[in-house]
Amino acid sequence: MGSDGLAYHLPSAFEIIEKNKIYFPLLGSLFYGYMPLIVEIFYAAPILIFKNIIVFKVLQFSVSLLLLLLVTDFTGKFIKNKILNFLIIVGFLALMPFQTVALAGGFIDVFTFLYGLASFFILIDIFLDKTNPAADNKNLLLSAIFLGLALSTKYGGLSFAATNGLVLLLIILKKKKSFIKTIALYAAPVFIISGFWYLKNYIYTGNPLYPIAFGTNDMMSQSLGYYTVMDRKFINFFIFPFLLFGKNTVLKLPFAFYNALSFCFMYLAGLFLIFKKNLGKLELVLFGFVQIYLLILFYWTHQIRFAAPALIILIVLNAVMLDKIILRLTKRKVIFGLVSIIAAILLAASINALKAQTACLIGKNDQNSCLAYTTGGTIYAIDYANRNLTNQVILDYWNPFGAYYLKNGNSYTNTLCAGYNYNDDGIRNCLTANHIKYLIDLIGSNNSYSQNPEINNANIKIAITRYIIKNSRLIYDYYDKPMRISVKLYELK
């Protein structure tokens, strides 16, 4: 299960089912409840129909397969050596450790990737005249519909809006179309489909992108900015693509090495085709997408899973360039064989990195150890509470995902005690009013937020946590040095 999925994507779906209606904002006005929710609605439907909370995973995985089919179908129109489709599939699957983040239970990213890339591919077809010119307007509408769906999924769809806008401008210039008419034709369905989410936020909060406010120090923007691979200096952008998985990972993690190798090939193959005067419009547009998408991420957030569209387009670009290069070589079969062997090795090495997840999937590892990473170790405190407590309210600020595994009438809260003073008397009154007697404290997260008290109301959480620890007794303490997990359970005296 994915952390964000457990934190707010799935709770939104469950709340829709529980309340038997869709209302705004969801999740008790928590800022997550203001975001676009179309996929959460998609998740709620099969859960409600089949009466099984895990059925959404089938929908999520199926969309990933559709994404693979979309990529291979698009690339197949441009490469002469059809066997390269195999390399595209291998390249896609070799991103598996990366994709497990995007495919973690409850995440919605793969929907955004599918809609956004479908929209982008249609525009490329129009630009390169791969569609009937008479059908340009119909295809523009179809692209706009997919972009509208991407924007209705999450704010990450705005990156596709930026890249699509540039390709749309190229179409207007190349085909001498009316600028105003074409933009209006494209923007209208995008607004009709996705405008609701942004207008709603503007009416509620005055900010169409709430809770994100670019150029300010709001808590959501700070949380996104907290994920940093390197300083956001422009010169570092040229290194950033090679180090997406971290500065010291290229020679340690197979999939990080594969990623760096893919970017190296892109630049070398591009230079080769420029030298041979064989670099086409398709390659330039795909290259532009990769650079623009990563540039947006570089200055926004360095969360790995958000880079998936750029890496998928990188696979397509490399396949197209490799196809052109092979056609210029005499010993094509030998070259293709070597590339296939390298790809197979990278795929095997990348999949091997999933051995821990595989052990969980086949039941080799116990549930608690499998859930320890997602829950930050709080699952061990939850397990203790399930065995020893009944009908108790447990406070946990630092990692709420274990709350879904509470049993015996025990429940979770992360109240900020709004309306109370944050002195001892005010905090005590709040805890009493909310029937809170227990606290789960994840030491690593507590220390991290103590150093960044301005993020996510951390100063309030720290004050309440310190009061409880001062007036409680420790009833459970779990420490795992190799996993760097330290979690404690306190009971108010």
From TrEMBL:
The chain crosses the membrane at residues 22-43, 49-71, 83-104, 110-128, 140-173, 179-199, 234-250, 256-275, 282-300, 306-322, 334-354. Keywords: Membrane, Transmembrane, Transmembrane helix. It comes from the Bacteria. This is Glycosyltransferase RgtA/B/C/D-like domain-containing protein. It comes from Candidatus Roizmanbacteria bacterium CG22_combo_CG10-13_8_21_14_all_35_9. The lineage of its organism: Bacteria, Candidatus Roizmaniibacteriota.
